[in-house]
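Sample 3 of the quickstart, ligand magnesium ion:
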Amino acid sequence: MSKQLLKGNVAFAEAAIRAGCEAYFGYPITPQTELLEHMSRRMIELNRVFLQAESEVAAINMVYGAAASGVRVMTSSSSPGISLMQEGFSYIAGSQVPAVIIDVMRGGPGLGNIQPSQSDYNQVTKTAGHGDFHPIVLAPANVQEAIDLTVLAFDLADKYLTLVFVVADGAIGQMMEPAELPPMRELPFERPSWALTGAFNRERNLVNSLYMGVEGLEELNFKLQAKLAQIQREEVRYETQFVEDAEVVLVAFGTAARVAQTAVQRLRRQGLKVGLFRPITLWPFPEDALAEVSERSKALLVVEMNAGQMLHDVRLVAGIHTPVKFLGRMGGRIPLPEEVEHETVALLEQLAVAV
Amino acid sequence: MDTVVFKQNHVQPLEKITYERPSSLCDVHTHYCPGCTHGTAHRLVAEVLDELDIREDTILVSSVGCSVFSYNYFDVDACEAAHGRAPAMATGVKRVNPGKIVFTYQGDGDLASIGTAEIIHAAARGEKITVIFVNNAIYGMTGGQMAPTSLLGQKTTSSPFGRDAQLAGMPIHMAELLAQLPGTVYSVRRSLHDARHVLQAKKAIRTAFEAQIDNLGFSVVELLSSCPTNWGMTPNEALTWVEEALVPFYPLGDYKVDERLQGRKGAPK
Amino acid sequence: MATGRIVIDAERCKGCELCRPACPQSVIQLAESLNTKGYRPAMLVDPLHSCTGCALCAVVCPDGCITVYRDLPQKQTSLPKYEMKETLAHVEAVA
Ligand SMILES: Cc1ncc(C[n+]2csc(CCOP(=O)(O)OP(=O)(O)O)c2C)c(N)n1
Ligand code: SF4
Ligand code: SF4
Ligand code: SF4
Ligand SMILES: [Mg+2]
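Result:
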């Protein structure tokens, strides 16, 4: 396979297809619509299931039904649609069936706008629905990673019987970059043993999130918590650049991390000791790795395209020992590398004075 | 499948079973209140699954309402949808199991209030599912609040002065409404208030499943049903109320029967 | 007229009494005793063997408690006539 020029949204869709996605249900919303449009053509060509639902509420409940039937299934949306899907996320989590959600985030709150944003960090990592659960949340920073993480999302969903989000901002959804698609996977011949396929020659299967008794529901929650703990131990992913000797480490994900990376590279050329820490899994958040980096550095600078949502997780990790500064742009603005450089240099100067 | 009983030393059978609990029902006791016709509706569906011999191919999507535990009562693969979303969940199940028989079992709050978008669009798409719609003119499970199907003047725990059209609008006729949609091949209303009507309801349920077996489109049977507990009546009084109050307002009948279904049991002559 | 009998699963029965008015022969009554769920189960009280096995009771029973049997027409050789008469006379004497 060779590289080709791909738009982020198309890359998500085609990667899902090649990862063995057998069913897609979605509802149009900018800036992810090309994803749905690509699916509408390719899935039908491949004799797989594509359906444009009447709403995001319906779409996620269709996903729930297909997931309960044991096929690889996904939906995609953008922030307002993700808000609407929360009901389904919670039921899927409670029923422990695998599903993949792609969220190409836009500016909020309300109808907000269609510009790139990281406005859903809290929503997807912490408040994706009622009850105690966290989806796995993967955050690509370029088109190649959008592809790789989409494939990984399906594998993790199946492995842990859980919801997996891939979150990107509108910039990644819309940008064209050279990237390589994986080969087409064979679809599995059989469905998992728990799937709804008709109780032919076996006991009946039940996919359910209702537990009227106290014991039953607490037991389910203990199981869910144990699974989440295992995911926290085994599935943390992140990337670091120049953190070994960095005095100031920038913490950013997605498009904000690309901007931060440009700033770090330029500042390094000027001989300044700065580094980059980029969470790839937003949940589980790379707490231990960041804690280590934060202990070694003098300060952290969080860069986000929101009012400071990941900031809280970084502060929890850094504790009181390492100062944490924040640079955020909202309303669909992407911070400029110059802004980030300026803020970083200012921080380095403050630190020098303090010493 | 009549079973005959032999007595020792008698070569000739003495009697045969003419009615027996359907095997598609699990051998459990239901949580339904005494005399609640949810149980009757369950039995009829199970009898049809037995007669058509489709139990092993059938997947139930249960809904939120008193029938929330129906997945414990039917001996079939099952899942439990969010309130009102059963038609969407059933769509997901059916699309990836096109050869299976998928049915939802929904109350009137579930189907005619919170789930209107999902039911209308499942019907509009001609989703090849069967919907058993139990209309008891009330929110049974949550303690007898007004449903979109509650009658004018009906006193409920959330319409203590009786349903007022100015305040709450008029009740919805779902069987008629769903019949308007092009994807619907079968939409009828039946009642469960006496033996004759129960038998008619069963024929309709059978036709609705046959419509799905033949892959024709969306089929729905609305069943006028009782809720003695929240209506504050004895079970027999409740059936009388179904007959005297619900049936006149919600006329029984066939609102859509695709021509390919004509001539089947339960279809109009 | 055909004859038959019903067997009611007393543990499953909720004593709702829907079967009672549904029975054209009026041979169903509620028991005085309670089942373990605390309901008075329905029972067949049919001393004259007037149950026809029509199954209307079973058709309306929401809990699927009722099994219906119908007697098959018997050849002459079955029970001797006098035995049957004696039984009927006995029932009438009691009633
Ligand atoms: C999203 C949501 N809203 C509200 C409820 C509470 N609720 C449970 S059942 C029910 C009404 C069910 O009424 P109906 O569908 O008529 O069924 P019935 O109990 O009468 O058979 C409601 C409002 C819920 N479970 N979920
Ligand atoms: S509350 Fe009403 S609908 Fe619910 S089980 Fe009791 S009688 Fe039936
Ligand atoms: S079978 Fe018919 S006659 Fe016999 S008890 Fe039932 S309803 Fe009555
Ligand atoms: S209808 Fe069924 S549950 Fe009700 S009293 Fe008769 S046997 Fe019992
Ligand atoms: Mg109701």
